[in-house]
Amino acid sequence: MFLRKMCATAVLCAFALFSARAAEPAAQDAVTVDAQTEEILRGALRWLAAKQNVNGSWNASEHRRADHPVAMTGYVLMAFMATGNLPEEGEYAKQVKAGLDFLLDSIGADGQFRGVDGSKYMYNHGIATIALGELYGQSRSPIIREKLQRAIRLIVTTQSDRGSNKGGWRYQPRPGDADISVTVLQVVALRAAKNAGLDVPQQTIDDAVDYVRRCSAGDGGFSYQAGQRGAGFSRTAAAIYSLQVCGHYEDPLVKGGSEYLFGRHQERRFWTYGANYAAPAQYMIGGDTWRRWYDLMKGELLPRVLRNGDQCSWDDREVGNIYTTACYTTILAMPWHYIPLYQR
Fold first, then answer.
1. Does residue 27 surpass a pLDDT of 70?
2. What b/e readout covers 193-227, taking b as 16+ CB neighbours within 10 angstroms?
3. How many other CB atoms are there within 10 angstroms of residue 13's CB atom?
4. 3-state SS string over 197-230?
5. Within its chain, how far is the Cα of 147 from the centroid?
6. 317 within domain boundaries
7. Does 2 fall in a domain?
8. Smallest Cα–Cα separation from 283: which of 317, 333, 320?
9. Residues 284, 289, 294, 297: is their CA dihedral positive or negative?
10. DSSP at 216
11. CA 250 → CA 233, 243, 245, distances in Å?
12. 107, 147 Cβ separation under 8 angstroms
């Protein structure tokens, strides 16, 4: 298990090619996965593997079948990749390959994923496309590339071009209004694709950055939509992560947002969603910031583990226990450096 851990240093060197400025390995490597956390991660992977559906997908919860399978498959695949598993590598290669095949089979000729709740379509599209981008970047499979390109094309063509919403995305796959929670998923998907060598228009990235900046609430936090008041933990995490994946690592808004997250990390509304973005954002800042944040996350997550024999899981009772377990597994595994997207 975790066979790729031994080559993490070499992989990090390759990741630096995708960035304007590589994070300092010594600062990141000061944060490690200890034995207790690794044992929990092993249990979480066993649990997630056991919850996979026959068609290769996962649901938000083991108690609700056919519940957001496209999005949840994306989240679980990220958890498996964060722990060193790929379609042809790692203890859970079989599960990753089945999940990948499910996503590929779900993409239509127009780039849309079939079987998705239309009222929240772009949430599903974003995370599934992120997973495909990361899998393509580490496999260079031409089959993935062709379908990934379709999904990316849809993101580019559905970006809002209207007023204060320009540069963002919302629930439906068409230009219109926008919010930060949907926008972050599309921005990260574009970055994953660009890292992997696909063509992403720079103007699309620039407009997205401008939109995110318009969501700044002026107190270090970010609001749900441009021009609104009411900053919060989850939307601030989404915003500064968006700026970082667009290359704006040293933006003062990132530093202010990072400090805001430390002050609001116990805000429970959409906590899992926010923590899933806050962790890579603080990771990319690195150094003492990342060390302090990872310690906070361990303090939050380890006492809440649910055990069933040799399996481990979490349930925040917000979306579902499969979603929660996938997100927390990804967060706790970050010191292993397996996800190219999280490297500066």
1. no
2. bbbbebebeeebbebbbebbbbbbbeebbbbbbbe
3. 10
4. CCCCCHHHHHHHHHHHHHCECCCCCECCCCCCCC
5. 19
6. yes
7. no
8. 333
9. negative
10. B
11. 20, 9, 12
12. yes
Domain annotation covers residue 292: yes
Contact 213, 253 (CB under 8 A): yes
Contacts of 312 (CB under 8 A, 6+ apart): 40, 41, 42, 43, 44, 46, 47, 305, 306, 325
Report the 10 Å Cβ neighbour count for 6: 9
Beta bridge partners of 159: none
User: Tokens in use for 159?
Assistant: 């970006």
CA distance linking residue 77 with residue 98, whole number of Å: 10
In the three-class reduction of DSSP (H, G, I as helix; E, B as strand; rest coil), residue 312 is classed as strand
Q: How many domains does the chain have?
A: 1
Amino acid identity, position 61: S
Structure tokens at 27: 């600062």
The C-alpha atoms of residue 177 and residue 190 are separated, in whole angstroms, by 19
The pTM (predicted TM-score) of the whole model is 0.91
Domain span including residue 53: 36-334
Helix (H/G/I), strand (E/B), else coil: 220: coil
CATH number of the structural domain spanning residue 153: 1.50.10.20
Residue 303's contacts (CB-CB under 8 Å, 6 or more residues apart) are none
- Mean predicted confidence (pLDDT) in 278-306: 98
Q: Give the span between the Cα atoms of 210 and 159, in whole angstroms.
A: 13
Residue 21 lies in a domain: no
CA-to-CA distance for 84 and 213, rounded, in angstroms? 34
| Confidence band of 73 (pLDDT split at 50, 70, 90) | very high
